[in-house]
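Hello forum,

I keep getting stuck at the same step: I have a sequence, I want structure tokens, and every attempt I make locally crashes halfway through. Rather than fight my setup again tonight, could one of you with a working pipeline run this one for me? It's a single chain of 316 residues.
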Amino acid sequence: MRVLIVEDNKRAQEYLKDSIETQGHEVMVAKDGISGIESFKKFQPQVVFSDILMPKMNGLELLKRIKELNEQTIVVLNTAFDNEEYVVNALRLKVDNYLKKPIRHAELFSLLAEYSATIDSIERPTSLEKRVKKTYEIDMPSQLNCVATVVNRLILEVGGSLKNDQVLDVKLGLSELLRNAVMHGNLGIRYKNPERFINGMDLEKACQEELMQKPELVKQKVRVKYQLLDDRCEWTIMDEGIGFDWRKILRELDHSKTHLECMGIFISKFHFDELEYLGCGNTVRATKYTLENQSQSWSQKKTIKLGNIRYSPLKT
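Reply #2:
Ran it on my machine without issues. Output:
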């Protein structure tokens, strides 16, 4: 996997470079946003780790430029600040994830393994061609460590219906939706300090603690139904939780408001052509249009629906 590191702090740059190289990945480094764009064009990385506060061009500007050059590039922002404004702005620019400084090996390696497996399976699609079904259902236990396995199994059913870059979109989007269904749906985890969402290890710990306190929750499942229709692929994800007030989220999106509590929804919607919450909010339907239905541009087709109302994403 090709990884670009954009970091103006020399020690942090060397730490990330050495750590990522130990996992067998090809690494290039840049000291600021301007040189980061130049390196991006030459190196064509699949994943970018960037600091936010840098001279010449900050991480948010870099994120915007990278997504304009290649919207499929996975971008992870590194920050030492619990600043909701930075997070919200980055979400609007379609950031893929966050790491909070100081970055721990466990968090970094976990992300690298997830992205490497996702990219590797996209670049070796031969096994997908033989496994297209009209419908497929799978139940997943309320465990975050099952998400990657379930997503890979669901992708096998897609076959050649989607392009490789679309498949990458779907894998990232399904991972986010399934994690939300486990954490916030079945386990009912709510954070008093939403900035903890950017710390992946805290999420794992929170899930384990919740299961220890309420062992009956381990019986709850997340059910996923996949359908291949004439012009699209659809995934319907249903958890066994009490749901959430998606109408409130709708109002906030309608008034150009975004909060960290909505981060999962905000990230997920950029990976699908349509996203629709149903009923009490414990069911979500995600849609990706198939190869023969790609006449509209990305900006025209990326929508979010809550209830029966369709909303375009917020403009940056």
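The chain has two domains: 2-116, 128-311. If your local run keeps crashing, start a new thread with the error log.
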